[in-house]
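Sequence of ABC-type dipeptide transporter (Hahella chejuensis).
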Amino acid sequence: MALLEVKNLEVKFGLRSGAVTALRDISFTVDRGQRLGIVGESGAGKSVAAFSILNLLSRPGYISSGEINFDGKNLLKMSPDQLRNVRGNRISMIFQDPMMTLNPVLTVGAQMVECLQAHTRVSKEEARKIALEKLKLVQIPSPEKRLDQYPHELSGGMKQRIIIAIALLLNPDIIIADEPTTALDVTIQAEIMDLLLELCKGQNLGLILITHDLGVVSQVTQQMIVMYAGKIIEQGPTKEIINDAQHPYTQGLINALPQQGVPGERLYQIPGAMPPLQRIPKGCAFHPRCAYAQERCEKEQPDFTISGGCRVACHMVEDMIKQANVPASEEK
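Predicted 3D structure, token representation.
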């Protein structure tokens, strides 16, 4: 049994014009020590999926159906007190903007001690010792000094390391990292991702990494989910998807990477834009932007097809696999 199992999750947002579906039939698992990447353009539903796991959705968003099982228990059926024992204790979250996560009027030490005392029965002195250990674990220079500093006295990279240290305070089983390097420069991004990878391997932590950066996903994760318009369109081992993407959308994301371009020429970009939730087209949601779209794509929503070790929701892939499995005698 997987440590975390998200099963047929559906999330809606209630608007005056009627409810719109933000996530449709989302299913995936994360085992202890496994690293899963969720990628897609802005608006694909990556962060909504992450927030749903810990039921952090704000109104008008709500989970309309599905299950989220953690260690054999459905999180959606837990009381607020029961869920509070999971948040931070068993599943921690790293948000994308450290400036919004840290309280500007409290020192780093005060925030870490407060977090520990909210979940465990430890003295202030003991909590401070644990906080210091976690700062050392994330390789913060002069950790004793940082405990008594305010967030505005620290660089962006240091703030993000402190956020990771706070996520590790209660020794969780899984960390959800939502765009953890968005506000950082390239060199600091690499340091933070290396740190996360090292911590996950060293402490056997599960990781759900939400990002739009396929380069980061290819280096850090073992499994990968590609989302489009609130739905999973490709899912499987990261190396297999990166090396041989099946869905035209995933192929477009890979072709748009700078290293895929020719020096002196414009970078490739997928034509068009992600549709708004109120106007998701019928059939395959990607068909208005797809170079391989057929009439069937405009009318029928594709089911998942198994291709190698991956699940792909694409009529073209389904047809290609069927054609490949037809014996030569039948083709004639």
